[in-house]
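Retro notes - structure team

What went well: the batch runner handled both jobs without manual restarts.
What didn't: labels got mixed up in the shared folder, which is why I'm recording both outputs here explicitly, each with its sequence directly above its tokens.

Job 1
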Amino acid sequence: MGVSLIQEPVSLIVLKKAVTGGYLYSLKITTMKTFLSCGLLALIIACGMSACSKKNDNPASKAITAQDLQSYYIVNLYTDQGKQRLSVIYFPKDTGAIKAWLDMNGVRRAYPVALKGDQFTFDGDANGVLVYTFTLKRDSAGNVAIASADIKHTGYPDTKMNASQIIKVSAAPVLTGKIFSYTIPGSDDDTYIHFDAGSTLRFDDYNGIVGPYSYYSIGNGIGWKCEDPASGGSTMGVVGLSSNGNTPMMLIQTTVPMLDPSRIHTAELN
């Protein structure tokens, strides 16, 4: 349809040739070719721009930056040297260069964010011995998600990542006034963790009350740490999300004997 609108009847073109000695005929053919070429080029450009626009409008195609990571934290459960480990990596907002912070029970590290394309790495001691590697992606809504997670510990081939969860900082609840509980295996009673005013907490179980302890927050309230002067032990808790992705829960690792240091506990919000 488009070509028939551009072409002229042959008799009309021949008439022009007879009158002008071929000049107008030649000009007309050139004009038609140019018009067709320009139209085709414009169509290609328009389609290309439309495709680019659609790609740019797709939240899942947007590159992930260090600034994006500041809205998230990563909770990790892994096995190292035959023991269960809990760690959290977060990206607090400050006035300097963006850094990735790692907290474990009794450990804290901070280094500049190592993000290349969609791969984020964290070198635990900046010596290549214990290295976390995450391949990131965006979901259909544009939120940052984890495509794969791995951990390597030189000299310990059995070290493996069991689970990783990336969570928005805004999903972590304000702890003051909250109560979480977990059950120690072999016991019929729950252990309750009360977060009281003034950054204090206490553990309440069948043995009585342990604490109160002063605690300090990890990141922007995504977790906490405290020490037990009596035993010399320490405890760390990190807010996670239940399997449905909506309900806050807490992962706890401790070296306090009365709180069962043999495993990582999962506490539910009461």
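Job 2
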Amino acid sequence: MGCDVRKIHGDGFVAAGAHRREWKDPMSHSFILAAVTGAEKLTPYALARGSSDLRRAAEGLVSDRFPVINFLLHAMSIEIGRKAAILNVDCSAAMKGRIKKKVRHDLLKVNEVYQSVCNDKLFEATDLTALGKLNRYFKGKELEYFIVEMLGAALTAFKVFPALDEIRRCNEKIEEMLRGNDYFL
């Protein structure tokens, strides 16, 4: 079968290369392949297209009574669009580490990094105020998992949230920036 079997270990595992392990069942003489989890690296182009797709998904979803999913999709689109722009300028391991460990899912921090790396100020103060209100729930994954903080927001009919139109405008600015840069192709 083209498998490079080198040695059967005492636990039944067969050394089969760096990216897979096989286990030989001594009773049936069959092999079971256990694939190691893989990770693909997304390019700035892939991130930009993903951001655009999330924006379109948010726009296609109409939910006046329960707007959480709209906010989540817009916030994810904004986050990924900003990260695409940052990585288009600096795709070094150091920048990726900074985004992964320090910025994480914080919309305001990713905006700060974007401004410093891309030397561009896309959002106005009113945009940042709206993003700040939403960021409180987005960066800690409350929008996704609907934990205690979100329950409190829901009980007040989401009055602590910014207007959805404000977030939509922020996302339109991201989309215009991405489209203007040909999605970093």
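One thing worth noting from job 2: The beta strands are 13-15, 20-25, 30-35.
We'll revisit the folder naming next retro.
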